[in-house]
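Interim report, section 4.2 (structural modelling).
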Amino acid sequence: MSFDIVLWLVQDGIVNGAIYALLALALLLVFAVTRAIFVPQGEFISYAALSLALLQAGKLPGTVYVLVGGGAIAALLDIAVALRDRAPGRLPRILAVYVLLPLAMAGIAWWAAPRKLDMWIQVLIVFGLVVPLGPILYRVAYRPLAGASVLVLFIISMAAHYVLTGLGLVFFGGEGLRSQAFSDAHFKIGVLNISAQSVLVVLATVLIMASLWLFFEHSIYGKALRATAINRVGARLVGIPAELSGSLALTLAAFIGAVSGVLIAPITTIYYDTGFLIGLKGFVGAILGGMGSYPLAAIGAVGVGLLESFSSFWASAFKESIVFTIIIPVLVWRSLTTRHVEDEEE
Amino acid sequence: MAARVTLALFLVFMALAPLLVPEFYVTLMNYIGMATLVTLGLVLLTGVVGVMSFGQQAFTGLAAYTTAVLTTVYGVSPWVTLFAALALTAALALTLGFITLRLSGHYLAISTIAWGIAIYFVFGNLEILGRYSGLDNIPPVSLFGWALDTGRESYYLIWIMTLAALIAARNLLDSRSGRAIRALRFRSVMAESYGVDTAMLKIIVFLYAALLAGVSGWLYAHYLRFVAPHGFGVNAGIDYLFMAVVGGASHVWGAVIGASLLTLLREWLNDLLPKLFQRTGNYEIVVFGVLMMLLLHRTRDGLAPVFARLLPAGPGRARPAEAPALARREQPQSGEALLEVRAAQKQFGGLVAVGNLSFEMKSGEILGLIGPNGAGKSTVFNLITGVLRADEGEIRFRGERIDRHPTKEIAARGICRTFQHVNLVSAMSVLDNVALGAHLRGRRGTVAAMLRRDRAEEAQLLAEAARQIDRVGLGSHLFEPAGSLPLGQQRVVEIARALCGDPLLLLLDEPAAGLRYGEKSALAELLRRLRAEGTSILLVEHDMEFVMGLVDRLVVMDFGEKLAEGLPLEIQTNPAVVEAYLGGIE
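Predicted structure of the assembly:
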């Protein structure tokens, strides 16, 4: 293997790894705040990537139906609660968030689709379609089960994943789509041939991580999320509602999913169910990083990207299984180094 | 009685069902039976012990392929391959178990996914296993020359095995080992303190779950007469988890309910929805997901508790009958050196929780260990019982050094404790919680429990538990879930559990906290009686009136060190102690 192939593989690995790192962060965040292993993260990626590709093709993405329908269900649930509590004052807000906003976004998408607007405007529309799915999903699937066991929350995650994948097939069909690259430019640095697209991916990842860091360190909502992640009961005692934290975590997760989807759409062909596998690799990254530390998770995810890139060069048929089996030695190593309360030598 | 009648009706129904319903439903019931076996393993492993496994289909697949290869390629009888398949499954389970069960929660769950994926690729890529197209022409199981090759015949084979497994699992949970298993999820430190080998017990449950999956795989291969990798992918493993959760992950019968519901629902959706929507799409998966959400939103503990409420309530359990008393330890001579703590030291980071602490305790005395909050008293308990390991110094019990022994071995020497933060299995009855204290006084293991060969010993254990509960005055609460009692009474349950262990040395951590005046004097009376019988007691307590009237001697701790030691009267007038408690006069 020559040196420039190595460099090329490294570049490829880092680009994919950056996206996995974003997803690893989202998964960690949702897990820390809600205790849910957030399987549907992958659907945000698919929805965003496919929506972008469809907008570019001048078609109305099916995401709008999921958004408006999901919003309507969330609104009905909240309205039922408001009526039961005899608090009609809540109704305007419920309608604004779950009905008017999705309808407005759907309207914009419907208006914009045939006009084939500038790419950056299309990306903004995709964010507008996908990000609100986060809080809607939280309201519909997770909120009724706040405080349930990790097992039950996982099962709910799987159920949500089934629903969103199934709807994805219904609205996007089985065809794979790929969006246009943001830029076709290439830079030459020595032997290295860097595409503007990969620079963009890495830049976007770094930018998002930096803004997440600012958000968690310096904003009141970020601090509230951290507090909930560390101690749910304590957070509630100081007045941070668990629902707010959960909803916020899923909104961020949806945003990260949408960004990842938009970034990966020009690199790979995306099918309605591709997101799941991509999300899973983010998850492997989070595991490699120890399922608790954000920087380690990011490093782990970049490691997954590199591993994937090199293994696809050597043994492309086994690419996926190599990525997943790498967990085993890491787990064994963890099991040998983790200290236990009980002594096990006999 | 009502439970018996229900069970009998259920069995009669199961026996007659295949004669009454069309072949199609017999097929479905066969699938339900095979899924129930795997799900039952998950109920024990995931629901009761709290180990999430996505990998049960690996064991199902291993057993199915083993029997497929041995019967088709080598012509071995299925009854022989049953044992071969289970042996191989057991070997895989033990290997995986020893590696992965040491991992904590999430890692373990992930590792199950990893091996699930790995074994799927092994099945799909090995030539001898027919790669992705699998193996066919597997012979049916035959009994005395009679081939069980129809759905109805297989039905009986499948369901006899399934029902046997269900009953064995129910028996297991209702036994000495079962109590310990139910404590594994949240109370493993407590269980170790009463001598339970928690690591071994986890492996045993893991093994049982794997073997159940193996039996299911063997049945599957000989019923379908065909195996292929797609039946053993990660999706299958996740389906079993759905069944366990929907059925009620901590209820044995939840396995049947979950397996039935999911199998029927899948069948019904696949059949109905394409007709409804006039085209095939992934509608069934959408509707399935929505239904699962609705169901779990209504009942997050699954359907088993809902079904249990529908059944007529029985008259409740009867008080355990009198049984021959269990053997007791011989109490040491009064005045013999019992416990020696020498220069013990324990640091947490920069904080010295216990620093250079030494004291001695003679047999037959009540020694009070007092000190302000944070003085390190509970850490001393944890050092003595081996829950924490001392950084320096040594601890001797009856002359033998114990500070390097694991908790369960220290328990075996006759040291029983209560916990400052109540450590009861809250869903388990008071009786079962207390009987857990007598774990080391029984011998019968998991297999005996499954086969109900443990009843004589079990009667003794329960009778002993009931006696100790009477002794602490909670005789009217035997069958209430321990978590439903007021906190003060839960502490008393802890004392009864410790007494059940027939202790030479009883460590009581704030036993009187939360008790009313009358209950406190009853407790003091009980402790005096125990002392008269020769039991030695080390007592941590803040209620000075209670302590001063009861103890023989006192050790006072402050900031992890010994401040004073002596008779109650001396301590009360000791200026250093008064200063530590009341603050000095500036």
